[in-house]
Amino acid sequence: MTGVLIDTCVWSIALRGATPKEMKIAEELTQLIDDNKVKIIGAIRQELLSGYSDKQSYERLKAKLLFFPNEPILDADYEAAAEYSNFCRAKGIQGSHTDFLICAVAIRKKFKIFTTDKDFNNYSKYLPISIYS
Asked: Which of 122, 75, 121 is nearest to 133 (CA)?
C-alpha cells in the first residue's frame, strides 16, 4: 500500500470525536500518520477548513494540515470522476463530486480510502476502489 487517502469524515472524527468508536478511528489515523501513509487532496482540505468559522481555530487547523501536502490532481482525475459519477448514477447510485474525485485519485494512485461514509461501499460495487479497514 502506497498511501491512504483520508476522507473528510475521518479527519472530523479525529479532530472532534469523543466516543470509544471515534477514539479508535482517531488512533488508527494517528498510526497512519506515524507510518507516513496519510494522503489528502485539496477538496478535502477545503471541506475541513470550511468547518471552522472561528478564525483562531481555522488558523490552528490550517497550520496542522500543512504537514500533509496536497496530492496533485490531474485533469484526467476530474474527467474520471465525472465518468464514475455518470456510471454510478446509471446504476442508481448518487454521490458528491468530491466523493468521485476521491475515487478517481485513489484509483490512479492505488491508494486505499479511509472513510466512515457508507456511500463508498456502494461505489465499490462498481468502481475498483479499496476501502481501508
From this structure: 121
Superfamily in which the 4-131 domain is placed by CATH = 5'-nuclease (3.40.50.1010)
Instruction: Tell me the per-residue pLDDT of 48-74, one tens digit each, with 9 for 90 and over.
Output: 999 888 999 999 999 999 999 999 999
Question: What is the Cα–Cα distance from 93 to 86, expressed in whole angstroms?
Answer: 9
Q: Give one DSSP letter per residue of 59-113, joined into a string.
A: HHHHHHHTTSPBPP--HHHHHHHHHHHHHHHHTT----HHHHHHHHHHHHHT-EE
Q: For the segment 90-113, what is each residue's pLDDT rounded down to a tens digit?
A: 999 999 999 999 999 999 999 999
Residue-range domain boundaries for the chain: 4-131
